[in-house]
Amino acid sequence: MEELFKALSSVLPPERVSYDEVDLAAYGADSAIPPGTSACPIAAVMPQSPEEMQHILQIADRMRVPVTPVARGSNIAGLAVPVQGGIVVDLRLMNRIIEVNEDSAYALIEPGVTFHELSRALMEKGFFCHLPTASGGSSPTANYLMRPSGNYAARWDPDPLLSLEVATPKAGIIRTGSAAFEENLWRARYQCLPDLTGLFACSYGTLGIVTKASVKIFQRGEEERLLLMGFDSLPPALEYMKRIIRGNLAESVTFWTWGWNLFHEMMVSKKKDMPQEMLKHDQKTPPEGIPFGIASARLNGYREVVEAQQNVCINIARELGGQYLENEMAKERFPGCYEYLHSYFVKGTLPKPGEESQIRAGLHLPGCLVSAEPSSIIAIEKHMWELAQKEFEPPYFYRVLPYSHAREFFFAFVVYVTGPIPDQRVYIQKLKGIYGNLYRELLHKYGAVMFRYRKDPGFFAMTGNYGQLLRKIKGIVDPNNIMNPGVLLF
Ligand SMILES: Cc1cc2nc3c(=O)[nH]c(=O)nc-3n(C[C@H](O)[C@H](O)[C@H](O)COP(=O)(O)OP(=O)(O)OC[C@H]3O[C@@H](n4cnc5c(N)ncnc54)[C@H](O)[C@@H]3O)c2cc1C
């Protein structure tokens, strides 16, 4: 330990290395890993440059100490918790927006930059970025590296990453995409060589630490609109989403069941208590006067085009039995829900910094998150309602959104645990057991793949030669497996 402390002190000033137990304990939990159940890290470091990062990784590698990168620590699946102890690399001080390139439509950012910071900077220039429904304090770099589910997932490919700069234990500092050729060339993901940006996506910090990322940004149109449609069930809503995305009528669309919409009311109004109707036994039937679900779409572009797109969307929805919810009416009937969706889809910022994530963090338990073909999503929804009736306590609800021209859909069925977590431990344990087996069942029955890796080596093993090749690459980049080993990917 002493040798490690000495080595870290030779790289970083004392104020950027912490051995304080209170500081360190804070890194040891998230909503998937209760406090006190994981190992405590031995040090937390806050580098500010790729060179400092490289030195830290070299020291850790030499001493075989696990390293866990933490961008903002808002992940909820235990992926940024140092479950095997070691060093936490806290990226909060790498928080520069290095460039907003309006000509090529990308932003070059460091991993500690938050969604709030990036959204604000882009708004000033008439752009906005891909936004998940995460908290505004989380990191675009970390989120995009994990395959985001958010508001540009539909018309565009859900992958906003272009070029990366990555520090690795044994392969040095690597630049990918166009940046591989020249340090100042950050505009593209693909050039004339195989794609290495993709290697680091969905690797959860197990191959290296990204120190810079160029990410796609999108130009705001003359007109930006929120378009809301109520539906009585999933199948027509799914058909509506498919048609408007494939017809290039909207930039994105998400379907939220009524529980979500009441939840948005709660978040924006800052109320902490769930309304009784959210806890009712029959979750499939919405309370009086509320649609079963709302499909919210973002329209963006020249005014005349947007006007025509809106009309076509309304016609499609009506043909499928949907109900057009005018903005003014929605604002009056569901003010919080409207404010949330408007902020998210039109303003391009997550509403109410801090408060929103606080309420969510207090209640949230990761649910079943998968992606599958459109028709499979309908079968999975049925499966989940049946399971919920047997095993879950209300409230639970789901959200669906199409990816890349509706080739596949993202489906998240979430159970919210109410009341103090210590009282709910047995229930949470039971849920974890159910989710554990569920992913394999959904894969075999419906071809659905888990959305983010859930620490299941058996799932990884199913990939055959693909997994073997990844292991060989891992052997070159991080042969001593010091990089976030608690994720159980390698
Ligand atoms: C209530 C709630 C709801 C959410 N809903 C959604 C949603 O709908 N859609 C969605 O896409 N996201 C959602 N998320 C957010 C998503 O979990 C976070 O955006 C994501 O975890 C990034 O968070 P973070 O910045 O705190 O990263 P962290 O939690 O710090 O890190 C996430 C992972 O990336 C690794 N990592 C971090 N930085 C780097 C780096 N520079 N290089 C290499 N690896 C790195 C970490 O080790 C970890 O494995 C939600 C989060 C919460 C709390």
Structure characterization notes:
The chain is α+β, with helices and mostly antiparallel strands. Helix content is about 35%, strand content about 20%. The protein has 16 helices and 18 strands. The chain has helices at about 1-10, 20-25, 50-65, 115-125, 140-145, 195-200, 235-245, 260-270, 305-320, 325-335, 335-345, 355-365, 375-390, 425-445, 455-460, 465-475; strands at about 15-20, 45, 65-70, 85-90, 95-100, 105-110, 125-130, 160-165, 175, 210-220, 225-230, 250-255, 295-300, 325, 370, 395-405, 410-415, 450. The strands form three sheets. It has an eight-stranded antiparallel β-sheet with strand order 14-11-13-12-16-17-15-18. A hairpin with a 5-residue loop joins strand 8 and strand 9 (about 175). Helix 1 (about 1-10) packs antiparallel against helix 3 (about 50-65), helix 8 (about 260-270) packs across helix 11 (about 335-345) and helix 10 packs across helix 11 (about 335-345). The two termini are about 25 Å apart. Flavin-adenine dinucleotide (FAD) binds next to strand 3, helix 5, strand 10 and helix 12.
SSE map:
Elements: H1 2-11, E1 17-18, H2 21-25, E2 43-45, H3 50-63, E3 67-70, E4 87-90, E5 97-101, E6 106-109, H4 115-124, E7 127-129, H5 140-145, E8 161-167, E9 173-175, H6 197-200, E10 209-219, E11 223-231, H7 234-246, E12 252-257, H8 258-269, E13 293-301, H9 303-319, E14 323-325, H10 327-333, H11 335-347, H12 355-363, E15 368-372, H13 374-391, E16 396-403, E17 408-415, H14 425-446, E18 449-450, H15 457-461, H16 465-477
Parallel strand pairs: 2-4, 3-4
Antiparallel strand pairs: 1-2, 5-6, 6-10, 7-10, 8-9, 8-10, 11-13, 11-14, 12-13, 12-16, 15-17, 15-18, 16-17
Helix pairs in contact: 1-3, 8-11, 10-11
Residues 68-76, 79-80, 91, 111, 132-135, 138-139, 141-143, 145-146, 148-150, 204-205, 209-210, 357, 360-361, 364, 484 line the site of flavin-adenine dinucleotide (FAD).
